[in-house]
Design goal:
- The termini are far apart.
- Strand 4 and strand 5 form a beta hairpin.
- The radius of gyration is 35 Å and the shape is elongated.
- Among the domains are: 123 residues, PAS domain (Beta-Lactamase, 2-Layer Sandwich); 104 residues, 2-Layer Sandwich (Beta-Lactamase); 158 residues, Alpha-Beta Plaits, CATH 3.30.70.270.
- It has 583 residues and is α+β, with helices and mostly antiparallel strands.
- Helix 2 runs antiparallel to helix 9, helix 9 packs antiparallel against helix 10 and helix 10 packs parallel to helix 11.
Length: 583
């Protein structure tokens, strides 16, 4: 009786049994499909998050370099300035000191913070002036001492012999907290001192680090991991330059496990290695028990790392994928076979196309697929991802263009004289070497003119430095317009100029030099107040052969100029063997 009752209770038709089997199979597929769907969503979110991480780190690297690169370049130029070097070598010579302070003030006004400092190694005297020009009368502040802990930054930086180094520090004497740029003054291997400037830490954090971006936290750390810039001031490691690693507030303490810390160190090492070819690294690491996407980029110009921690759940809302899951469940209710086919055709295939197209973004290209034209969830997602990816690519290209433009501007600042606009020493040296590389054969010869404004010191002393500057600018204008565009005109320093003439023999060089002297002699300089000032100049010339270095060339022209000054100035002397033997 029990067996008969069991058979009666069982399904009586094949259709019912198939439906039950299909229902059970559908339930299994639903479970499997749910896990598969979540895996696809997670992988898509991971890939999109990784792309966002790379672009975010590149963006933060660009903002950090934009803020600091110009200041570092100006500080490097300042420690190579002849007046600064001369002052560091002869600190107590009144005339040299005056020129050195004037040069220091020139750079102070050019720095973003309008502050500047100089420590002369011979005396350890510390000179400083700020944006309010508080110490214009006497920039001397104090003398650094090796037994004073607050002066440890100087001796630590000095031990590195050359280069520029950044340090987040609180100056107890001056009562300011800044990102200090410390550049070593090195002349022929001898450390003459340290000079530089500072950036207000609060302004730096406001402009670079403290940009509100939900789910994204950016910071800058040095090579030891010490935090140098963070929106939370308590995280910044002040005086880190002179601390032992055990005393520093390092970024590694943010992560949960030793393996996470080791992974971060490995990413820092990879991005800092130019041979790796990877300027950005990203990986999932655990912070407070939650996996976070961590991006690392290296700012090689300043030796800092940009570390960006991103909460991928905040950046990529997985709830956006919910309509796809609902669509998947609805399709499964029709039939197993239809569900499998429709799911494959309308979900998996289309997602695979989107995923395959997005893989091109990793190579810096635009999305290589046509967005799905259908107006369902996947179609809208496809178009949104295509638009987002193209926007990211356009942003990257725009950033690269801006970086190129900024680089060209910085090169102009480094190679051009700030007062006259013509080449400075560095720019002339670069042009000289470029001409040598472009020359063919051993028979080529260039003409070199070393021009000196006669009695320029008298002009400065009697008329004032502003008039002296007008004279310098006008002489530079006349010299640069008197030669061809293919020739090179540069301010060699002070009131001296160099002109390099392409493919020039001795007779033609003499005519050019004589014409320049006559032009200056016959046409007075009209000053801003409409006064006319008679100015003459002396020129030493030399013919440069293919084997001559810039040092040899300028030495020959300088010997000729020395003779021109000795013979009464306002004349041209050409270098010859007699001058060489006399020298």
């Amino acid at each position: 009786m029990g067996e008969k009752a069991a058979r009666a209770a069982a399904p009586s038709t094949l259709r019912t049994r198939v439906l039950l089997v299909l229902a059970g199979f559908m339930a299994l597929l639903a479970v499997a499909g749910w896990f598969a769907f979540n895996y696809i969503v997670d992988q898509t979110a991971l890939r999109v998050g990784a792309l966002v991480a790379e672009r975010q780190v590149q963006y933060d690297r660009y903002r950090g370099l934009e803020t600091l690169r110009r200041e570092v370049a100006l500080a490097e130029a300042m420690v190579r300035a002849p007046n600064i070097i001369a002052w560091a070598q002869n600190e107590y010579d009144a005339e040299i000191r005056e020129r050195g302070i004037a040069e220091l003030e020139h750079y102070r006004r050019a720095f973003e913070d309008e502050s500047v400092f100089l420590v002369i190694d011979g005396s350890r005297n510390y000179y400083f002036n700020d944006s309010q020009d508080s110490y214009a009368g006497d920039p001397f502040q104090y003398t650094v001492r090796s037994d004073n802990p607050r002066d440890g930054w100087y001796f630590t930086t000095r031990s590195r012999r050359e280069g520029c180094y950044l340090n987040v520090d609180h100056d107890d004497f001056l009562g300011v907290t800044k990102v200090w740029i410390n550049c070593i003054i090195n002349q022929d291997g001898q450390v003459l001192g340290i000079a530089g400037t500072g950036l207000d830490l609060s302004a730096f954090i406001r402009d670079v680090v403290d940009v509100p971006q939900p789910g994204i936290e950016s910071m800058f750390v040095d090579e030891s991991g010490a935090v140098q810039a963070h929106r939370d001031a308590s995280m910044v490691d002040f005086h880190s330059l002179t601390k032992d690693i055990a005393q520093k507030n390092v970024v590694f303490s943010l992560f949960d496990t030793p393996s996470d810390m080791a992974a971060l160190r490995a990413m820092m090492a990879t991005t800092a290695n130019p041979d790796s070819g990877q300027t950005v690294q990203a990986a999932y690491l655990s912070v407070d028990g939650k996996p976070m996407l961590v991006g690392v980029g290296y700012l090689d110009e300043i030796g800092w790392y940009n570390v960006t921690v991103m909460d991928i759940d905040t950046i990529v809302d997985k709830g956006l994928f919910l309509p796809i899951g609902l669509l998947f469940a609805a399709l499964m209710g029709v039939a197993v076979l239809v569900m499998v086919y429709v799911f494959k055709a309308m979900v998996l295939d289309r997602l695979e196309k989107v995923e395959g197209g997005l893989s091109s973004v990793r190579d810096g290209k635009r999305v290589q697929f046509s967005p799905d034209p259908r107006n369902d969830e996947i179609g809208r997602l496809s178009r949104a991802l295509a638009e987002m990816s193209n926007a990211v690519t356009d942003s990257e290209l725009g950033l690269e263009r801006q970086i190129r433009e900024r680089t060209e501007q910085l090169e102009a600042l480094v190679n051009r004289d700030a007062l006259t606009g013509v080449f400075n020493r560095r720019g002339f040296a670069y042009a000289f070497e470029t001409m040598r590389e472009q020359a063919y054969g051993d028979s080529w010869a260039y003409g070199l003119l070393l021009v000196d404004i006669d009695h320029f010191k008298r002009i400065n002393d009697s008329q004032g430095h502003p008039v002296g500057d007008q004279v310098i600018v006008e002489v530079a204008r006349r010299l640069s317009t008197a030669v061809r565009k293919s020739d090179v005109c540069a301010r060699w320093g002070g009131d001296e100029f160099l002109i390099l003439i392409r493919n020039c023999e001795a007779a033609r060089l003499a005519r050019i030099a004589a014409g320049l002297v006559e032009m200056m002699r016959s046409v007075p300089i009209t000053l801003d107040d409409d006064r006319e000032l008679a100015v003459t100049m002396s020129i030493g010339t030399a013919i440069i052969q293919s084997g001559d270095t810039i040092e040899t060339a300028t030495a020959m022209a300088d010997a000729a100029l020395y003779r021109a000054k000795a013979e009464g100035r306002d004349c041209v002397i050409a270098y010859d063997a007699n001058l060489a033997s006399a020298g």
